[in-house]
Amino acid sequence: MTTFASGTDTLTRDALTVLQPGFTGTTAPDWLLRRLGEGLASVGLFGRNIASPEQLAALTAQLRAEREDVLVAIDEEGGDVTRLEVRTGSSFPGNHALGAVDDTALTEDVARELGRRLAACGVNFNWAPSADVNSNPDNPVIGVRSFGAATDLVARHTAAYVTGLQSAGVAACTKHFPGHGDTAVDSHHALPRIDVDTDVLEGRELAPFRAAIAAGSKAVMSAHILVPALDADLPATLSRRVLTELLRGELGYQGLIVTDGMEMRAIADTYGIERGSVLAIAAGADAICVGGGLADDETVRGLRDALVAAVRSGELPEERLADAAARVRALTRWTTTAAPAADGADPEVGLRAARRALRATVADTFTPLTEPPYVAALTPVANIAVGDETPWGVAAELLRLLPGTQTGSFTGEDAGPAVLRAAGDRRVVAVVRDEHRHPWMASALDTLLAARPDTIVVEMGVPQAPPRGALHLATHGAARVCGRAAAESIAGACPVEPASPGPTH
Q: Which are the catalytic amino acids?
């Protein structure tokens, strides 16, 4: 086990223990290794830290050489939110695709295989799954990260995901408590507010978290949202009523409570990350996630010192900080003793799931493509949780199947005419994300379909807009495997079958 640096007192070690910081680069910087020696127990990884599975395994080995029981956390949801495959797109469809299939055994298998890949690289803690019920179709940050809009569907798939992931020896962190689905504001930018009564919260938002707790989720992540029915003044991350009275008391949860990223503006703009972190631990959180944007030793030192000062001033009870640190250490013990499932790997499970999630609406005029088309990606502003470095769409897969395929990205009011000019006489494949949320995107499709009724439309977001086009494919996500499944249907490599009734999304 780690031998802590001499002179690091218990209070300072506890303050470091509850932090989950990030860093820049593909090797661990000296300051991070030093902090591990002083008591830091967790490290968060992001796409910037990962170049290949081999490099990631070397990085986690470097961390464990300093502290063998370190929690190595990652934001790997599969689907649109991937860090393992940040530059290629994910081998796994995301939650919305799994919800569209509605086969909990498949969801468990996908989560298990994803967990195997994480564990093979030395990652033992995943900030996933999202248990949010996407009840607001205008939600700008959850969307396809949710299993769907039906509470019972989200609950059963959340439980299956937790079971599958943890069977691979990777701790699940179910998020975003008490539920981020009924929001129209992204908490990366501002503080969302959910104005529903406690009966709605109990029947809709909380049910998936109850299912996750029953499935043994090792961690739960709080949301930076204001829910006046629970606490009229403080966002959930800073609310004792939400974290201690509701999550711990009423729901009986005993695992680790982790905050969402504290540098997100919903917290940082109002409270600041240091003050916010003190309030979060006092409210009942056990671990402070920070590092998506702030990723340096100054941040770690500032948070450590703020927690120590709050204890010494009497603002934060020392026993509350000690309890939080103890819960972190309990999870580190689980990760060192958890036995991964013995059954074999299933590297194709993600593609099979993506194919099953595909929903086709076929016009009488549709014929599979035999000549290379023009793929027009109608590209919205990237969701911060997803990032803009991860490729999406069907162009790469169609190029593989139909060499000579050309592509371009379009946005704004002139997108439709611009696509027609760029495409020339090629067949057009228009790829969209959440057409229902972007009037300019809907207008562009109007223009394309009026001029070229043989246009194929691929919806890679939440399929809320009415299907249209010679062929309309709803992939329920923009992962690489979702693009491959769509391309196979467009090129006739897989037969196109009309969509059958499925669960409500």
A: 188, 260
